[in-house]
Specification:
The protein is α+β, with helices and mostly antiparallel strands. Helix content is about 25%, strand content about 20%. The chain binds adenosine monophosphate (AMP).
Length: about 120
């Protein structure tokens, strides 16, 4: 079933279950707004996911309905993760997939953070 990235939010999605502590994750960062953990199927030497703690289906949902404090807190968290992992000097890439054409698989908004090698072209294929 393709992911639409639009509400309603599915509280049984895998990241909702990680947030509730029902399944484990390799946590790298947590604050009031956000949780960051290693991707289970890394596409680069460093591949971390940063997710908001509140339930948003996608970037579309988050950008339209999250509060200003929450959006700021989340974006700062992405930057803090990169800083704490020591990625700033060599650089990194952030990416958010939205909906079917974006390739979104998990219907809880998340930002991918890739690093650890030259990352090549922006869009494969
Ligand atoms: P997306 O295609 O943007 O929705 O990306 C979803 C990402 O979640 C993929 O890179 C998966 O490898 C990752 N993923 C799925 N399940 C888990 C999990 N239990 N722990 C960590 N990452 C996961």
């Amino acid at each position: 079933m393709p992911i639409s990235g639009l509400p309603p939010y599915d509280p049984q999605n895998i990241f909702a279950r990680i947030l509730r502590g029902e399944i484990p994750c390799k946590k790298v960062f947590e604050d009031e707004w956000s949780l960051a953990f290693h991707d289970i199927n890394p596409q680069a030497p460093i591949h971390v996911l940063v997710i908001p703690k509140r339930p948003y289906c996608s970037f579309t949902d988050f950008s339209a309905t999250a509060g200003a404090d929450e959006i700021a807190g989340f974006m700062r968290a992405v930057g803090k993760v990169a800083k704490e992992l020591g990625l700033e000097a060599a650089g990194y890439r952030i990416l958010a997939n939205m909906g079917e054409h974006g390739g979104q698989e998990v219907p809880h908004f998340h930002v991918h953070l890739f690093a650890g090698r030259l990352l090549g072209r922006m869009i494969a294929g």
